[in-house]
Amino acid sequence: MKAMILAAGLGSRLKPWTDEHPKALAMVNGTSLLERNISYLQKHGIFEVIVNVHHFADQVIGTIEKNKGWGSSVTISDETQAVLETGGGLQKAGWYFSGETDLVLMNVDILTDLDLTAMIAQHLAERPLATLAVSNRDTSRYFLFNEHAILSGWRNVKTGEEKIARAGGISVQKAFSGIHVIDTTLLSMIRQTGKFSMVDVYLDLAKENSIQSFDHSGSQFIDVGKPESIVQAETIFN
Question: Which residues are CB-contacts of 122 (< 8 A; sequence separation ≥ 6)?
Answer without folding.
Answer: 131, 212, 214
